[in-house]
Amino acid sequence: MNFKRFWALLVCRNYEFLRDRSTLTWNLLFPISLIAGFAFAFSGPGLALYKVGVLGDIGGNSSAFLQTRYVQFVPAADRLAALTKVERHQLDMLFDPTGGRYWINDESPKGYLLERVLRGADAPPAFSKQTVNGRVIRYVDWVMPGVLAMNMMFSCLFGVGYVIVRYRKNGMLKRLKATPLTPLEFLSAQVASRWWLTLGTTVLVFVGADFFIGFPMHGSYLNLLLVFAIGALSLISLGVVVSARTTSEELAGGLLNFLSWPMTFLSGVWFSLEGVHPFLQQCAQVAPLTHMIDAARAIMIDGAGLAEISGHLLALTAMSAGLMAFGAWQFRWE
Fold first, then answer.
1. Alpha helices in 161-302 (DSSP H)
2. pLDDT above 80 (res 135)
3. 228 pLDDT band (50/70/90 cuts)?
4. Mean pLDDT throughout 233-254?
5. Cα gap 227→188, rounded to integer Å
6. Which pLDDT score, from 0 to 100, does residue 48 have?
7. Which burial class, exposed, middle or buried, applies to 324 when counting CB atoms under 10 A from its CB (0-12, 13-18, 19+)?
8. Lowest mean pLDDT segment, chosen from 1-15, 40-54, 186-200
9. Tell me: the pLDDT tens digits for 152-190?
10. Separation between Cα atoms, residue 38 and residue 269, nearest integer Å
């Protein structure tokens, strides 16, 4: 691999992107406008929905409270993890029908109403009250990592997959083939250019959104950057696979949309995957976007360290290596 040829192609690709002011502006303003819109839309009290975590078997319990309509009962296998959700208002109540206990947050109006419902449904009172306290996690705080990862996904997939196909269609790859440039040097320059540009725009978006809206950050900024760095590499590798032999821009656009939109809806960008079908939850684990979002949320909201997100990092690293190797093997100049 010749470093001079690699560097020359890298600089040219960077100039091409930076001179396209409309694309650069879109990459910066689109995620910020989305985050600002969610912050405004969910700044009020929200909808009157109730969510109760239940310790033990829900179906095998005869408590009248579990038959209450318009309340979503979700299994809670880990009591400590469920209590953390109650502290942060992600669960309105934690209910233990076998042990005769329940937990609510004294600062939660939904928890207060559910307590009244519980005591009315299972009168006379048979449960002892216990309380927890914690800062509420806004929906905009929860959705922020998903919006950043989604913006990175579109930038990586279309910024590499679509661009290489355009090069092939207009004959640029045929001209590059006549030079001493090797496929490894060409693909490495494309990947490196898109990688640092994506990370740079993501950092700018994060800093700008955090300045105007403010987000909780309980973990390490370096760990969050590491997650986005490896995640961006895996998404770029997926774009390389799509562009390896595709000759039509229309086909490339269709394939990229076919990959990106299911990932958007099944990777937990807008809503939690806890309530969806188990088969879809398993399918979501194949997508690199799922691991990016889960790891980023764990760092920002739960303060997770590298040990806690090691599974996500290993999955992203394996996807990056496998997809990049397959894309390089399948790559053709024409």
1. 163-169, 172-177, 183-212, 221-243, 249-266, 278-284, 288-302
2. no
3. very high
4. 85
5. 20
6. 44
7. buried
8. 40-54
9. 888 888 888 878 888 888 888 888 888 888 888 888 888
10. 13
Mean per-residue pLDDT over the chain, rounded: 81
Tokens 């540009």 belong to 197
CA 177 to mean position of chain CA atoms: 38
What six digits make up the tokens of 287? Answer: 């997508």
Torsion angle of C-alpha atoms 11, 16, 22, 27, degrees rounded to 10: -40
Task: Give dist(CA 305, CA 219) in Å, integer.
Answer: 7
Give the contacts of 11 (CB within 8 A, at least 6 positions apart): none
Distance, in Å, from the CA atom of 330 to the CA atom of 82, rounded to the nearest integer, reads 47
Distance CA(193)–CA(169), nearest Å, equals 21
Best CA proximity match to 35, nearest among 156, 202, 267: 202
Q: Please state whether beta strands 50-54 and 93-96 pair in parallel, antiparallel, or not at all (unpaired).
A: parallel
Round to whole Å and give the CA distance between 221 and 224: 5
Asked if residues 315 and 261 have their Cβ atoms less than 8 Å apart, the reply is: no
Q: Phi and psi for 28 in degrees, rounded to 5?
A: -90, -45
| Sign of the dihedral through C-alpha 166, 168, 170, 175 | positive
CB-based contacts of 323: which residues, under 8 Å, 6+ apart?
A: 234, 237, 238, 240, 241
pLDDT, one tens digit per residue, over 291-330 is: 999 999 889 888 888 888 999 999 999 999 999 888 888 8
* Residue 225 confidence (pLDDT): 92
How far apart (Å, rounded) are the C-alpha atoms in residues 319 and 301?
25
pTM, full prediction: 0.71
**d(C-alpha 168, C-alpha 183), whole Å:** 13
Put the strands of the sheet holding 71-75 in their side by side order.
71-75, 50-54, 93-96, 101-105, 128-132
What are residue 56's phi and psi, to 5 degrees?
A: 95, -170
Supply 211's token pair. Answer: 């300045």
| Most distant CA pair in the chain, distance | 86
